[in-house]
Amino acid sequence: MDGASAFTRLRTITLPLVLYSIAPIIITQYTFNFNNFNIIYLFNNGGPAVAGSNAGGTDILVSWIYKLTMSSSQYAIAATITILLSIFVVGLALWQFRATKSFKNDDMA
User: Fold this and answer.
1) Which residue intervals of 1-109 are DSSP H helices?
2) What pairs with residue 49 in β-bridges?
3) Which of 10, 54, 100, 109 is buried most, with the most CB atoms less than 10 Å from its CB?
4) 41: exposed, middle or buried (C-beta count within 10 Å: 0-12, 13-18, 19+)?
5) Please, are residues 92 and 30 in contact by the beta-carbon 8 Å criterion?
6) ABC transmembrane type-1 domain spans which residues (predicted)?
7) How confident is the model over 42-75, as pLDDT tens digits?
8) pLDDT over threshold 80, residue 18
9) 12 phi and psi, to 5 degrees?
10) DSSP code, position 14
């Protein structure tokens, strides 16, 4: 790529090669970010509550699902949120795998 600008080299050579190798790490990281339940629960049980809201001030979706099932027995709402969260995470992961072409089995030579 003689005469290409630094941005063009970055966009066409460097980023595709780097994204190909770090895409599984990125996907694993944001998948694990949805499972930070133990940190929220151990510090303050997801409180203090926000006025006019169903969720606490430091609640995440996973801790809110736990509260819906364990304290108020709203199993249908908790199951719906769980299914929607799962669909969102799987869809985002598949989109990123497709965008970074991580499923391709090409030689990098």
Assistant:
1) 6-9, 15-33, 37-44, 61-70, 75-99
2) 56
3) 100
4) middle
5) yes
6) 1-94
7) 766 656 666 666 555 667 778 788 888 988 889 9
8) yes
9) -100, -20
10) I
Q: Over the range 3-40, which residues count as b (16 or more CB within 10 Å of their CB) and which as e?
A: eeeeeeeeeeeeeeeeeeeebeeebeeeeeeeeebeeb
Model-level pTM? 0.58
CA distance 3 to 37: 51
Can the peptide bond before residue 24 be classed as cis, meaning omega within 30 degrees of 0? no
CA distances from 90 to 83, 86, 94 (A): 11, 6, 6
